[in-house]
Amino acid sequence: MNPQEPSDPPFPPLIDENRYPFRSTLKKHQLEIRPFSIETLQVNVGKLCNQACRHCHVDASPLRKEQMDRPTIDRCLEILKDHAAIKNLDITGGAPELNPHFDYFVTETGKLNKKIMVRHNLTVMFDGHPQTKESKTYLPQFFAMNRVELICSLPYYQEYFTDKQRGAGVFSKSIQALKLLNEEGYGQNDTGLILNLVYNPVGAFLPAPQATLEADFKRELLSKFGITFNRLYTITNMPIHRFKEDLKKLKTYEDYMTKLLNAFNPEAAKGVMCRSLISVGYDGKIYDCDFNQMLEMQLRIETPVTVFNFDFDKLLNRDIEFASHCFGCTAGSGSSCGGATA
Fold first, then answer.
1. 187-198: average pLDDT
2. Tens digits of residue pLDDT in 20-50
3. Are 216 and 210 within 8 A, CB to CB?
4. 198: closest CA among 250, 142, 121?
5. Global pTM?
6. Which candidate in 12, 50, 189, 195 could, as Cys together with 127 as Cys, close a disulfide (CB 3.0–4.6 Å)?
7. Using CB atoms within 10 A of its CB, is residue 155 exposed (0-12), middle (13-18) or buried (19+)?
8. Burial (CB count within 10 angstroms: exposed 0-12, middle 13-18, buried 19+), residue 81
9. CA distance readout (Å), 15 to 33, 239, 279, 324
10. The dihedral of CA 172, 150, 43, 106: what is its sign?
11. How, if at all, do strands 286-287 and 277-280 pair?
12. Is the bond into 328 cis (omega within 30 degrees of 0)?
C-alpha cells in the first residue's frame, strides 16, 4: 500500500449539502444539537504515521511532515490547567507518539490530574519513527507509568481483514503489541490500566451492534491469543478523504451516502461528540470535531478560533458547524470517538 504524498491535489472540502441535507434532517426531527459542555480537549499532534490505512480520514502516512510545535503544546497545557471543566486530554494523529514533544505532553498533562487518552495504532512501537528510525519499544512501560488510557486500532480479530485495511503484517504486529500491553497490566482486572480497541468496518457498510462485536472480539482474542481488553468501540467509516476516494473509484459513493442518510437515528444524533468536545489541529486551529478538522471547517466566533484566542464561554455557546459527512456519526447506533452513541 503506497502512502499518499502530502503534495497530492486537495480533496473537495465538503459533501454537497443539497443532496444530503444534514441540517434539514435535524429540523425534520425537531432536533437542536448544541454544545452542553467541553469535557474533552482532543489534540491532533501531527499527520505523520508509520501506516497509510485505506480508511484514514486524516490522510496520515510516513511521508507527512505536519507536526504540532512546542509553543502550541504548551498553550494546550495552559488551557487544561486553567479550565477544571476540561477533564480529558485525547491525543491523536497520525501516530501521535511520533511527535517529538509527545512524551512531554503526556507527562506534563499527568501533573494536572487530567485523564489522558492516546489513540495508539499498536504497530508504531515496533516500526518506530519512519524518518528518524527512533525506537518506540519503550511505549508500553511509558503508557503504564503515566496511567494513559489507550484506544487502539484493530479492525478485526482475523488477519486477512485487518491486513486488507491497514497493510501486510499489521495484524501480527498488533497481536504482539497487545500481548506486551497485557504484560504491563493493560486490560487486566484491578489494575486501572484501560485498554480499549477500535473497530472500523472493512468496506462500505455500517458496523454491527457494538455489544455483539465486543463479545466476539473478547472471545476470539482470548481463545486464540490469550489477549484481554476492556471495551470495543465501533466507529463508522467517514465519507471523506481516502475512504471517499475509494468509494468513488468503486462507484459506491452515492450508495454509501444514501445508506447513511436512510439510517439516521435521532437518538444517536443527541450523543454526537461535538456536544462535549473540541478538536485542536497540529497548527493550533480549533474545530468542532476531528472530522471537521480534516475538512478544514475551522470554528469562527467573530474571528477564526485557535488555542491562542481560546475563550471557554464563547466556545460553550457556539453554533456547531454541520455538513453532510455528519450522517456518518448519526447512522444506526451512532459513531463517535467513544464508539456508539445510542
1. 95
2. 788 889 999 999 999 999 999 999 999 898 8
3. no
4. 121
5. 0.90
6. 50
7. buried
8. middle
9. 20, 9, 20, 6
10. negative
11. antiparallel
12. no
DSSP three-state, residue 152: strand
Task: Delineate the domains of the chain, giving CATH numbers in brackets.
Answer: 22-330 (3.20.20.70)
pLDDT at position 8 is 35
Please, which pLDDT band fits residue 6 given cuts at 50, 70 and 90? very low
**What span, in angstroms and rounded, lies between the C-alpha atoms of 128 and 123?**
8
The model's pLDDT over 226-244, given as tens digits with 9 standing for 90+, comes to 999 999 998 888 888 778 8
Q: Are residues 225 and 175 in contact, defined by beta-carbon separation less than 8 angstroms?
A: yes
Bridge partners (DSSP) of residue 90 are 42, 117
Question: Could you identify the residue written with the cell 490469550?
Answer: 226
Alpha helix positions (H), the chain = 22-28, 70-82, 102-110, 124-127, 139-145, 159-166, 170-183, 210-225, 241-249, 253-262, 266-270, 290-294, 312-316, 327-330
| Cell digits of residue 238 | 467517514
User: Residue 81 is placed in which grid cell?
Assistant: 490547567
